[in-house]
Design goal:
Protein name: DUF4185 domain-containing protein
Strand order of the largest sheet: 9-8-7-6-24
Number of helices: 1
Strand content: 35-45%
Organism: Nonomuraea rubra
Largest sheet: 5 strands, mixed
Order of helices and strands: HEEEEEEEEEEEEEEEEEEEEEEEEEE
Number of strands: 26
Mean pLDDT: 86
Radius of gyration: 24 Å
Shape: globular
Length: about 350
């Protein structure tokens, strides 16, 4: 005779319970404004020159001269802005076929003593091209003149989300998402370079989202509920570890400066930003001095902040511009990292 029976068991959830929400959450520190910490590195440039369209910073041509550019929604023009006199004059304009929106989107800019170079997301109205853009490398004299195409950088339909451009001697080095090239500005064979993608060293793999520069890395420690967000900055071998009150960020620029998200308390709730309680303000961090300062301007009709990066001077590679809107939106506040004095750090 068969006797039916039922097997039953209790499965215990191995996930530890969430900690109880404390009555008082940690206080988010009120960091000083970066413009007050690095006063000598901050300049202000107009968002619109008299009689000219809206412009934004692209790079610094010298200590007293900023390179400005018009919106990518129109035929781009480069301008020079004199920080001493406030004078503005045009340096060069994109070809006539670039009049449509995003037909000639200037992506990254670098300058030397004699040249301005930039990468551009380009669309040409060709019967066989169904609206796909690609990347090109362009150049012009630093003093102004005709814009000249140097070479294509990608095929149709390949425009990276972001790229990086530097001048090295008489060559331009360009990094995209999947491609990297060294291009002679005077003509000659283009050299393909290894991808910039890298695997995090073993000593720093306990951190999340780790990104490294030449010698230093940035990563996130395990998230803890109801605690203040932090990042960890350390060497590739895991030494000289320090914590920075911030929420996210990429590798250090020039192995020194960090552009990080502002800190907040991890409250396991959807963040809702209002004019009274705006989003965390971005943070500029200096590894050499251990100082952090608030940067960024509020977006129009929003409680979120934004900050943009511009080009770099050949004399100060890997130290670009950071810039954001002033509160009245009549000017751009520019933090030129190359103006921050070198400190005794390694």
């Amino acid at each position: 005779m068969l006797i039916p029976f039922t097997l039953s068991c209790t499965v215990q959830d191995a996930t530890p319970p969430l900690p109880a929400r404390p009555q008082v959450l940690p206080e988010v520190p009120e960091l000083e404004l970066a413009a007050n910490i690095w006063r000598d590195a901050v300049v202000k440039v107009p968002a619109k020159a008299k009689g000219e369209p809206a412009i934004k910073p692209a790079a610094m041509l010298s200590e007293d001269e900023a390179l400005m550019v018009t919106s990518s929604e129109m035929r781009p023009t480069f301008y020079s802005y004199d920080l001493r006199t406030g004078g503005v004059h045009a340096l060069g304009t994109a070809p006539k076929w670039a009049e449509c929106s995003l037909c000639f989107e200037i992506m990254s800019v670098a300058t030397s003593e004699t040249r301005i170079v930039w990468s551009a997301g380009v669309y040409r109205s060709e019967p066989w091209n169904a609206g796909k853009r690609h990347m090109e490398l362009w150049t012009m004299p630093r003093s102004g003149g005709e814009m000249r195409l140097v070479t294509w950088l990608t095929g149709h339909g390949e425009v990276p989300f972001e790229d990086k451009l530097s001048i090295v001697g008489d060559d331009v080095v360009w990094y995209g998402d999947r491609h990297a090239y060294r291009v002679p500005m005077g003509g000659g064979p283009v050299q393909r370079l290894p991808s910039a993608a890298q695997t995090a060293p073993t000593a720093v793999r306990e951190l999340d989202g780790t990104q490294c520069g030449r010698e230093w890395c940035v990563g996130m420690p395990p998230t803890r509920l109801y605690e203040l967000t932090k990042l960890v900055v350390l060497r590739k071998d895991g030494t000289e570890r320090r914590e920075v009150v911030a929420s996210y960020g990429g590798p250090l620029m020039n192995d020194r400066f960090g552009l990080f998200g502002g800190p907040y308390v991890n409250d396991n709730k959807e963040m809702k930003y209002t004019a009274k309680h705006p989003a965390p303000q971005p943070v500029q961090y200096d590894r050499c001095t251990e100082k952090s300062g608030r940067i960024g301007g509020l977006l129009e009709d929003s409680a979120a902040y934004d900050v943009f990066t511009g080009g770099e001077r050949a004399a100060n590679p890997e130290e670009p511009l950071l810039y954001w809107n002033s509160s009245d939106r009549k000017s751009w506040i520019v933090l030129d990292l190359s103006r921050i004095p070198d400190s005794s750090c390694t």
